[in-house]
Amino acid sequence: MQYIIKVNAVIKFSLIISLLLIDMQSVIIDEWKAPPTVKEVPIPKPKPGQVLIKVFAAAMNPADNAFLKGKYSSKRKLPNSPGLEGAGLVIESGGGLLSWRLKGKRVGFVTSDYSNGSWSQYVTTEAVRCLVLEDDVGYEAGAFSLCNPMTVMCFQDVVQSNKYKSIIQTAACSAIGRMNQRHFTKQGVKVINVVRKQE
After folding, report:
1. pLDDT tens profile 89-123
2. Mean predicted confidence (pLDDT) in 127-147
3. The pairing of beta strand 130-132 with beta strand 166-169
4. In sequence order, what are the residues at sequence separation of 6 or more whose Cβ sits closer than 8 angstroms to the Cβ of residue 182?
5. Is the pLDDT of residue 14 over 80?
6. Which of 42, 136, 157, 198 is 20 to 30 A from residue 18's alpha carbon, by CA?
7. Is residue 55 a contact partner of residue 106, using CB atoms and an 8 Å limit?
């Protein structure tokens, strides 16, 4: 109970302080394949259906590396910040019932093609791209709560609809590979793993 009271006090304090700021620090790439830099940029304003999130943790996925090299399919225009997913505190709503309901909540989120990336102090994204975190889930775990787990669920749909008894996966030592291994083993589906190195 004491922990919950402290967390609520921190959330309220963060909301008040965040609303007073106008600029933030963000990792920015100005052109593809160029080294990213940290810059001061204006805090984005959420549009209807969007929320503004104070970022406490951001993921680094292979897709982010591809984005930095200009090899990831995205409509984002440069300059922009990388980062496809993260976790943080919703501090402002751009309007709409779902956006309003998320205000003050801790969320995992996926960024959109029309917003800045999660490698920023603040990010805007659509409310439907947010997942409210349970009290026992920290920001670091929450930052990995959508991209990989949703990919496993897509694999699950393919396996179920085709009634596969086994699957073969490459890059089996990756985070997504380990998730697949755990998930499908529990489902009784045999997983054949292909890895790049003996160790």
Report:
1. 999 999 999 999 999 999 999 998 888 899 999 99
2. 92
3. unpaired
4. none
5. no
6. 136
7. no
191 in Cβ contact with 185 (< 8 Å)? yes
Q: Which residues of 24-34 are buried (b: 16+ CB within 10 A; e: fewer)?
A: bebbbbeeeee
CA distances from 18 to 3, 21, 72, 157, 186 (A): 22, 5, 32, 41, 43
Q: Strands 50-58, 85-93: parallel, antiparallel or unpaired by DSSP?
A: antiparallel
Measure Cα distances from 173 to 36, 141, 161, 167 in Å.
Answer: 28, 19, 26, 15
Calpha distance 105→93 (Å, rounded): 11
Question: For the ranges 11-15, 35-39, 52-56, 147-151, which has the lowest average pLDDT?
Answer: 11-15
Domains of the chain: which residue ranges? 2-142, 147-193
- Let me know if domain 2-142 sits in CATH 2.40.50.140: no
Checking if the pLDDT of 9 tops 90, the result is no
